[in-house]
Design a protein that fits this description.
By secondary structure, this protein is an alpha+beta fold. The chain has three domains: 5-55, Helix Hairpins; 87-111; 124-253, D-amino Acid Aminotransferase, Chain A, domain 1, CATH 3.30.470.30. It has eight helices and six strands, in the order H-H-E-H-E-E-E-H-E-H-H-H-E-H. The strands form two sheets. It has a four-stranded antiparallel β-sheet. Helix 1 (5-27) runs antiparallel to helix 2 (35-51). The protein is globular, with a radius of gyration of 20 Å. Residues 6-256 form the NAD-dependent DNA ligase N-terminal domain. Keywords: DNA damage, DNA repair, Ligase. This is DNA ligase. One of its GO terms (molecular function) is metal ion binding. It comes from Rothia aeria.
Length: 256
């Protein structure tokens, strides 16, 4: 297909619109459009880039992971990169992803993959760094490489162990998951905020992100935050091969 000036203009506008929406959602915790509207913009951006690969810019939102780290918090470089999830919107796309995953598994191990399905928790991705079993730092995902130091705020969340249970912990390990607010707690929190004459949060995800990214940890401590852990980043000598083993290990260390 020929590349017209109209396509170039549309592509530039899509990049601006998606970038603005991502900044509002991930960095400002104040979304300006619905999730469905954002998905439509992002999918159209992907479609244009697939049709006209010569257009793809290095700074396109499709080449980035999540949001960017805020200058309000000290930057933290993750030991291992944090990736975002890939969305699919149809049975056809899901089948294509399954085929690709099977081919990759065969190429790497010579085996077909086994599958484990998980709930998607819509919260704020957080990376916990434990050293000799003690929590020493917590950071948001940020752009996947550099996040925000939210250690003091994370220490107020009751479901996050300050020290891992058991023994023989790795000298250093990154444990990852989502900080979130349940639907029931979100409803109660918004009712309280409205009663105080303040504007309510738009959705549970932004309520969790806004609560965690407070400059005053005392404010965070008053919010009903929880964390669902689901993965391990940088670590040494664990010998784990499956996601089920990850969950078993995390449970043995005191995560719920």
């Amino acid at each position: 297909m020929s590349l017209t000036p109209e396509i170039r203009d549309e592509y530039a506008q899509l990049i601006d619109d998606v970038r603005d929406a991502r900044r509002a959602y991930y960095t400002d915790d104040a979304p300006t459009i619905s999730d469905a509207a954002y998905d439509a913009l992002y999918r159209r951006l992907e479609e244009v880039e697939a049709l006209y690969p010569e257009l793809v810019a290095n700074d396109s939102p499709t080449q980035e992971v999540g949001g960017e780290a805020s200058s309000a918090f000290a930057p933290v470089t993750h030991r291992a990169r944090m990736y975002s999830l890939e969305d699919v919107f149809s049975d056809e796309e899901l089948r294509a992803w399954l085929t690709k995953a099977q081919e990759n598994s065969q190429a790497i191990s010579g085996k077909n993959p086994t599958w484990l399905t998980e709930l998607k928790i819509d919260g704020l991705a957080v990376n916990l760094l434990y050293r000799n079993g003690a929590l020493v730092r917590a950071a948001t995902r940020g752009d996947g490489t550099t996040g925000e130091d939210v250690t003091h705020n994370v220490r107020t969340i009751a479901t996050i162990p300050q020290r891992l249970s058991g023994q023989n912990h790795p000298e250093e390990i990154e444990i990852r998951g989502e900080v979130f607010i349940s639907s029931a707690d979100f409803k109660a929190l918004n009712e309280k905020i409205v009663a105080e004459g303040k504007n309510p949060f738009a959705n549970p995800r932004n309520a969790a992100a806004g609560s965690l990214r407070q400059k005053d940890a005392a404010v965070t401590a008053q919010r009903p935050l929880s964390m669902y852990v689901h993965g391990i980043g940088s670590s040494q000598g664990l010998g784990i091969e499956t996601q089920s083993e990850v969950y078993e290990l995390l449970a043995s260390w005191g995560f719920r």
